[in-house]
Every structure is written in C-alpha cells, then in structure tokens.
Amino acid sequence: xxxxxxxxxxxMPVILSLMLVNTTSAADVEGGVNxxxxxxxxxxxxxxxxxxxxxxENWEVTMTLNDAAYNNNTTFALITQICNNEGVCLPxxxxxxxxxxxxxxxxxxxxxxxxxxxxxxxKATYNSDNDSTEMFPSSGFYKTWSDCWLEDGEWGGDxxxxxxxxxxxxxxxxxALGIMATFTAIALAAVSRNE
Length: 195
Description:
Elements: H1 2-27, E1 44-49, E2 58-65, H2 67-71, E3 75-84, E4 93-94, E5 98-99, E6 104-110, E7 115-126, E8 132-136, E9 142-145, E10 149-151, E11 154-156, H3 162-169, H4 176-194
Antiparallel strand pairs: 1-2, 2-6, 3-4, 3-7, 5-6, 7-8, 7-9, 10-11
Helix pairs in contact: 1-4
C-alpha cells in the first residue's frame, strides 16, 4: 500500500505541472495579435517577416545581425512550430537558413491546412563567449497569426470560410481545460487502481 501512495505523490505533481504549463501559455495570448520581438533586445538590427499567414503558403523571415553579434561571430538557429485550429501543435523544428554574406539570413516555412499561427524563436550561440547560448524570447515564442484562427472559442481573421465558423460555433466540444481535467481524472483513477 505504501508503494501506491508514493507513486501517487510522484505522479500528481507531474500532471498538475503539465496542466499549469499549458494553461499559463494560453492565457498570455490575445487572438490575432502577433507577438513580436523588440529588435533592440535581440542580436539583430533588422527583422521582417510575413505579417499574416495563409494555409499551405510560406511564412518568410529576413533577419540581419547587429554589429556586435556579427563581429563576435555569433551564430543562431531559427526554431519554428505550427499549431492548428484544433489546438494541436507540431513539434518545434529548426528551420533552414540561407545567407550570402553571413550577416543577413532568410528562411521560409510552409504552413499546414487549418493552421492558427506560426510560433518562432531564435537560439543564439555566442562563439566568443565559450559557446554560451541565449533564447529570444527567453521563454515561449514569438507568434504570427493566420488569416483564419480559432482562440478560446472565438474565430478571427479575414480568411475564414463562413461555413467553417458556423459548423464549429454550433459544436458542443470540450474546451482544452475540460479535456485536461478529464485526462487528470482518468490518470488518478488508474494510479488509485494500481494501489
């Protein structure tokens, strides 16, 4: 019996932590409002990207290193993640970068059908500082919204077909928090049963 209680004491904090991580990140998002970097707080002196994404088209970005980053041989990786209107996000992936002068870099990532937004972030490696790394943003992602998005049960964007909004608006699907609560209850029942 003592073993089952120990398992429960270990499993519960893990499940609760996962729930809090997912709800906290969703709470900071305002549907349809891109999350942009403050250029002066990054390794770049210029950055531009596609402002509104469209299904099965490229999200494109151009980034130019600032003088300090360029002179110190700073390198970086662009990490992207695409999420859909069902609330499912693909795993983050490192995007392919191209450059002619090792100062200005471009990249393009093709979106998926029914996507909500493109998440993106930069991992900088300071080669002149023992290869230390820094993430931009320090946590979470910058975000570029699609022309048809669903956030907290509300549709937005200029590219949504009216039929999709009406069909989804009439559905009785569980919200993400309800799904998480259901999963937690099932997990607790499974752990309790093993005792």
